[in-house]
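Write out the bound-state structure for adenosine-3',5'-cyclic-monophosphate.
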Amino acid sequence: MIKPDAVAEGHTGAIIQQIEKAGYKIIALTKLQMSPAQAAEFYAVHQARPFFQSLCDFMTMGEIIPMILEKENAVEDFRKLIGSTNPADAAEGTIRKNFAKSIEANAIHGSDSDENAAIEGAFFFPGV
Ligand code: CMP
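---
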């Protein structure tokens, strides 16, 4: 999911190019603005965290681009491609190093397991 900061700043094309160059096939893609209820549901796992409300506010401030991506070892390799959650810790050349501004405005989200990839994919693309 390309986050509102990166979409608003016009980084969509560059990020998708980096994802495709890394060997990912785009299976589904859309652009939408999440409602507060959708953001709270998507990030429900973080609801007890101190940053939860701020995260939900941030994620609903503009349009996002959710995608379903396909590749061998997709989840693990994607986490390497995007880099650490905090861009200050992200490796050179990663998407977050290139485009993220802060731990909250960190340009992109990637699923952390195959199971969550299926859940998160179905959240935005039911039936795909
Ligand atoms: P993401 O991979 O989308 O998963 C949860 C998000 O919470 C994370 O990226 C960050 O953008 C956001 N977040 C905001 N503050 C923090 C924090 N202190 N620690 C971890 N994640 C945070």
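---
The domain at 4-124 is CATH 3.30.70.141 (Alpha-Beta Plaits).
The longest strand covers residues 25-29.
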